[in-house]
What we know:
Order of helices and strands: HHHHHHHHH
Oligomer: single chain
Structural class: mainly alpha
Strand content: under 5%
CATH superfamily: MetI-like
Amino acid sequence: MYKKLRRFTVISIIGNYWQLLLTSLGQTLLLTLLSLFFAFIIGLIFGLMNVSKKKILNIIGVVYVDGIRGVPLIVLAYFVYFGVPALIRALGASNFKLSALVAGVISLSMNAGAYMAEIFRAGIQSVDKGQMEASRSLGLPYGTSMRKVVLPQAIRTMIPAIISQFIISLKDTSILSVIGFPELTKAGNIMVANTFAAFQVWGIVAVMYMVVIITLSRVAKNLERKLRREDV
């Protein structure tokens, strides 16, 4: 085993597995982008419920946000990938199953959507109440006032938090290797099994995550600075 460890250097591992690394990084980014797209929609819906004046909508929003945030992502992934198909097969659809990508997108979207709902709630509540009152006084209905007056202002303040959630979701994709999704952590497991060079392989994977996340963090900070300058 120690001979194998000496045989595989970082350069040789990259040379032999660069296609696997790039493909798995692409899968990781694809999963993150798809999940954030649906999480944005989920977050918007439940965020609006949480600021609604209707009690029943508030209750639904709170139950979803608190419920989903109270379930570990790995448990949610197992539930969606194994539990839901098992239930549907028990109801008569004998050949039903979910691909790892679909299950990953669903579970990560539900998880990120709960946090996005809180981002939307906080963003909407950060807008001065007078904006809504002024809009309503001009005769605009609540929905139009929210869509054309409040949300555009709220989203400006939410952009850094949304990018931060993107970073969190990107890191959370590593958990989905447990259901066989071919993301970066799964590729690392395959490479370790083939080379026994755990130190080198996980060092490479860590650096790849680090480069992407640092880049996104810089983008978030630059956007935040730009928005602050525009508000001055």
